[in-house]
Design brief:
Elements (H helix, E strand, L loop, with lengths): L16 H4 L5 E3 L14 H16 L4 E5 L3 H13 L6 E5 L5 H6 L1 E3 L6 H7 L8 E5 L6 H8 L11 E3 L3 H22 L25 H14 L6 E6 L10 H16 L9 E7 L4 H14 L5 E5 L3 H10 L2 E4 L10 H8 L4 E4 L4 H4 L6 E4 L1 E2 L7 H9 L4 H10 L2 E2 L1 H13 L1 H19 L1 H21 L19 H4 L13 E4 L4 H9 L14 H12 L3 E2 H5 L4 H16 L3 E2 L1
Parallel strand pairs: 1-2, 1-4, 2-3, 4-5, 5-6, 7-8, 7-10, 8-9, 10-11, 11-12
Antiparallel strand pairs: 13-14, 15-16, 15-17
Helix pairs in contact: 2-18, 8-11, 9-10, 9-16, 12-17, 14-15, 17-18
């Protein structure tokens, strides 16, 4: 058990009562999920780190709550929020077993869509105590699909939410859950209904970090000179993971760039203008990077291809300045929002993107950029892909890669858009300026965090008004999917310990045997589920005075204390210290 002394705080002066009244949420903190500086960083890491930084800077909170399994993770949380500017503000640790602090926070925020485990844990008490709020990133993996479908059968409530980062991903989530609900109705009858909220709130961007300044202008000129770009050359920047199976297959982009370069050569005044492709990121392995490098001269021999290391922060920052147009022809179901287009808009770049997933929300065609049509085959063309993915006969990478292979991006339309953007600095300027304004007004973390706080306030209102679904289980009743092992496996044993039993020491050597058993960790490795050593010795000394009925020992104990005692009595019998 965790006592009050273990509730750690990093206390400092707050900003007053108004901040204390702002909607808040405890953060389920796993350091890896919030680390955007880790090797092979993915969008969900950058998004989670950005969310936490935005919460610190824009939520107006005096207190931050971290729900972690260890003190070390809480300490990491404190270090991270202080690096974002939370020095002098309070941080509270919410360890397992101390869910009362979640009541104080009002909501538990999870950096993914899986609410089921937290919902089961909350069920053992007043389910109105606090809300659960998750968020979608990738929704194409089997693990995430299972987590989303479990929302139907877990004890979720109307005051819980899974934030969908785009309209496209919400439609995908709804189709998935509707299909599973239909299966449940067919299997067991009745109507399965998802009670939680599925609001659409986008990911955010720190617009201030992309503001132009003299340093960025210097970096722009330095990188362009290093790459051999002339003053009239136009750099199309792809920023993201360099992988053909899990992000955006590069060949359609290469083909479109080659067609555009050939078309420019025939236009008056454009014969000397060159298109360059800058691909900034990291490949999962050397073979994939080599395949992409080899594809450049094969499909766009007239267009120089520059592959830059996205793990180099200074080089990555310089690339945003060196680029003239952002391009991403995403074709992968793993994508659900896409951070890089809004980062591009914050940097003042026009966006040339596929009409796909969250890009359909972020880029306004003809106003902040250009969207290129995409096409996929109709169902059931993917039946065997889904079946093989679901049974494990096919890996996740091959599942999303095969789906990508059957997703078409209009190469000719992309070529025309590249040609138009390369040929007109005025078009690039107007689209880029409109994109920067849109990023500031819609996607800056200041705006996005306010939407989250509005959601948390709405969920709190629902907790006060809405009726819970289901009843609170009887004390000691375990979740149906994870039953008490001594209930589920009661048929394994000859018999079960009865409270009507009486116990005595096994023989005159019992006290010595106890110390011998306690001396080996192999006998005490699960000691936190049993009486502490001091209390254990006291119990054995009591039994040494004579036969003691188990009922006498359990009198006045709370249910958790009773459970611990019954396990401990069985432990003593296991090592022949007592007898019934």
């Amino acid at each position: 058990m965790v006592d009050d002394a273990q509730i750690a705080t990093a206390r400092g002066p707050g900003s007053g009562e108004s901040a204390a009244a702002r909607p808040n949420a405890a953060i389920q903190y796993l350091g890896d999920a919030y680390d955007a500086a880790r090797p092979k960083v993915m969008g969900r890491h950058s998004a989670s780190a950005g969310f936490l930084k935005g919460l610190v800077r824009h939520a107006g909170l005096d207190t931050f709550y971290a729900f972690t399994s260890s003190r070390a993770e809480f300490d990491d949380f404190v270090r991270r929020i202080q690096s974002f500017g939370a020095i002098g503000r309070e941080a509270k640790w919410v360890p397992p077993g101390r869910l009362g602090l979640l009541v104080e926070a009002g909501c538990l925020y999870l950096a993914g869509p899986g609410l089921d485990e937290s919902a089961w844990e909350r069920r053992f008490g007043d389910q109105r105590r606090y809300s659960l709020c998750g968020v979608t990133h990738t929704v194409s993996s089997a693990r995430v699909m299972d987590a989303l479908c479990s929302l139907l059968t877990a004890p979720t409530q109307s005051w819980d939410a899974v934030v969908c980062t785009s309209r496209s991903v919400r439609a995908a989530v709804e189709r998935l859950i509707e299909g599973h609900a239909a299966y449940l109705a067919e299997r067991i009858g009745g109507t399965a209904r998802l009670p939680i909220q599925l609001p659409v709130i986008p990911l955010g961007v720190d617009c201030a970090s992309f503001e132009p300044d003299a340093v960025r202008e210097t970096r722009r000129e330095s990188l362009r000179q290093r790459l051999g770009l002339g003053a009239e050359d136009v750099a199309f920047l792809f920023f993201g993971r360099l992988t053909f199976h899990a992000k955006a297959h590069p060949v359609p982009m290469f083909m479109a760039a080659e067609l555009a370069q050939q078309a420019l050569a025939t236009e008056p005044g454009m014969a000397g203008r060159r298109i360059h492709l800058l691909m900034v990121g990291q490949a999962p392995n050397e073979k994939i990077e080599r395949d992409i490098r080899d594809a450049g001269p094969r499909y766009c021999p007239s267009v120089p291809l520059h592959i830059l290391d996205g793990a180099d922060p200074e080089l990555a920052d310089a690339a945003w300045s060196a680029g003239d147009v952002f391009i991403s022809l995403s074709d992968n179901v793993q994508e659900s929002f896409g951070l890089t287009p809004i980062e591009a808009m914050a940097a003042g770049l026009p966006t040339l993107v596929s009409d796909w997933n969250g890009y359909r929300d972020t880029t306004i065609d003809g106003e902040t950029g250009i969207r290129i049509a995409t096409e996929t085959p109709p169902a059931p063309a993917g039946f065997d892909l889904a079946l093989h993915h679901g049974t494990g006969a096919e890996t996740y990478d091959r599942y999303i890669g095969a789906t990508s292979q059957a997703t078409a991006v209009d190469v000719r339309a992309a070529a025309d858009a590249i040609r138009r953007l390369a040929g007109s600095s005025e078009l690039r300027r107007s689209l880029g300026e409109a994109g920067r304004r849109r990023a500031q007004h819609v996607y800056d973390w200041r705006v996005v965090i306010a939407q989250y706080q509005e959601l948390w306030s709405e969920l709190a209102q629902r907790r006060r008004i809405d009726q819970p679904i289901g009843t609170t289980p009887a004390p000691g009743k375990a979740p149906p999917l994870r039953p008490d092992p001594f209930d589920m496996f009661c048929g394994h044993a000859t018999r079960q310990l009865d409270a009507n039993n009486a116990v005595r020491l096994a023989d005159s050597q019992s006290l010595m045997r106890l110390e011998n058993v306690l001396a080996q960790s192999m006998n005490t490795y699960a000691g936190h589920y049993f009486l502490p050593v001091g209390a254990l010795r006291q119990l054995v000394q009591r039994i040494a005075k004579g036969v003691v009925p188990v009922n006498n020992m359990t009198q006045g104990l709370t249910p958790p204390e009773r459970r611990t005692l019954m396990r401990t009595i069985a432990w003593l019998k296991k090592y022949d210290i007592i007898a019934f």
